[in-house]
Input
Amino acid sequence: MRDRVGVIYRRPLLELVFEAASVHRAHHDPAEVQCATLLSIKTGACPEDCKYCSQSAHYDTGLERETLMEPNEVVAAAERARAAGADRFCMGAAWRGPRDGRDFDSVLDMVQRVKALGLETCATLGMLTAEQATRLAAAGLDYYNHNLDTSPEYYGEVISTRTWQDRLDTLAEVRASGMKVCCGGILGMGESEEDRIGLLHALAEQDPPPESVPINALVPMAGTPLGDVAPLPWDQLLRAVATARILMPRAWVRLSAGRESMSEEQQALCFLAGANSIFLGERLLTAPNRGRADDAALLAKLGLRSVRAPEPVVSQTIEV
Ligand code: SAM
Ligand code: DTB
Ligand code: SF4
Output
């Protein structure tokens, strides 16, 4: 129930972090952090109007639009990511959804070849049909990322070109195809605490819950309607990470976008509270990320190490 999620989220902060840390230790090796690398395989000119996104064609963000990358270039980037220690390679495209034909066939080729490198594969391509989900699964795609982004109540304030139900429909197709689900959201878009609780509830309520839960802190992008929103208070992100860990004990909880503007101390608290996955490398999709050297130093300081493509144990959640 959503009320119970609110009770967890609003516990005294250190009580909440302590409980989340205990749950984390019961289900995971607390020294392991999964390291994923992102690549934007098709950038900009997206028909959707997500108010946070630099890639929406609705806003003038100064981003150069690019066509779909060649599979050879993508495979070369995946090889570099593997050599730099990535466990998972995630390919993102600024599409409302893939169009069948040459482009989609090309993505299937990328998936097959990245998988053959021994990396876990993930893609985020927008809405999928049942057939597209099945074909991606058959090509060897391990995870599909499709975020709920915010609470059902706040969704319409952020995106008008698709609905919350559209998101749920694609998530159902991903599940049915046998791929693992990567589903999270963004905090710091001007939503209320109740909206953050609503998002966490909606994530945990999925049956089964997602295997991977990216928690993004908004990276304000100049030219978008959310380009100058006030930063999220640090305790709110920590509460969200801890609550996600308690509600979804076996999931990878990823401290995703926004780490560049977080202090090392803030990140350390998030790892303590159960975050166990990050994006490595200088770039996310279009936004800068902390550099590898900084992250290697941070992980070493905290006594954390990367894992290479382990399987999370079968997903389960507690009653909410
Ligand atoms: N176009 C596809 C879609 O939206 O489903 C896939 C790519 S999209 C960029 C993937 C996710 O990145 C979004 O769902 C959103 O959660 C996250 N994201 C995009 N821009 C962001 C920003 N400025 N700050 C934080 N997260 C962001
Ligand atoms: C997710 O939840 N976060 C990643 C990944 N899924 C694709 C994307 C973050 C994007 C940050 C903004 C940018 O780089 O443009
Ligand atoms: Fe397009 Fe995805 Fe950006 Fe929305 S978040 S504008 S769907 S690329």
About this structure: The mean pLDDT is 91.
